[in-house]
Amino acid sequence: MDERSAGVILFREDSGEKRYLLLHYPAGHWDYPKGHVESGETLEETALRELREETGIPSHEVNIIPDFLDRIDYIYQKGRDISHKEVLYLLGTTDTKEVSISREHQGYAWLNYDLAMDRLTFKNARDVLKKADSFLESRDDKHKN
């Protein structure tokens, strides 16, 4: 069985520092907002819908940053079945600070890069954050020149 999900690495600027949004899942891990791609949805539509459902942040308060897309794949057991899951991540920014988490989560945090890297549970999630942060740094450097 194959599953496809989309999510967003969301950040906001706070006193000149990027703060990334992480969600605390009931299983105990920390990760990004993400969810299953519904039939007929684009990746961006899925990522923004899931963000809204899981955090209360509306789509019109998020700017998706072009040219960033990262993918993780993993295998997990779902009941008696072994499943393959692909998650595609976009990168987005918001000025919204308030989060209203869904019943799917038990908490959230806006964290700077170092704290987010410490808090993220899975290596593949840390790898995505590293790529996203590097992408933003190189983009910022281009705008300075």
Describe the structure.
The protein has one domain (2-144): Nucleoside Triphosphate Pyrophosphohydrolase, CATH 3.90.79.10. It has 145 residues and is of the alpha+beta class. 29% of the residues lie in helices and 39% in strands. The chain has helices at residues 43-55, 113-119, 123-144; strands at 2-14, 17-24, 30-31, 34-36, 62-64, 70-78, 81-94, 107-111. It is globular and about 50 Å long. Strand 2 (17-24) and strand 3 (30-31) form a beta hairpin.
State the main characteristics.
145 residues, 29% helix, 39% strand, single chain, alpha+beta
| Rg calc | 15 Å
Task: Provide the residue-averaged pLDDT.
Answer: 94
Helical residues, percent: 25-40%
What portion of the residues fall into strands of 2 or more residues?
A: 35-45%
Query: What is the CATH domain class?
Result: Alpha Beta
- Largest sheet geometry: 8 strands, mixed
Terminus-to-terminus distance: 48 Å
CATH level-two architecture: Alpha-Beta Complex
Could you outline the blueprint of secondary structure elements for this entry?
Layout: E1 2-14, E2 17-24, E3 30-31, E4 34-36, H1 43-55, E5 62-64, E6 70-78, E7 81-94, E8 107-111, H2 113-119, H3 123-144
Parallel strand pairs: 1-7
Antiparallel strand pairs: 1-2, 1-4, 2-3, 2-8, 5-7, 6-7
Short description:
By secondary structure, the protein is α+β, with helices and mostly antiparallel strands. 29% of the residues lie in helices and 39% in strands.
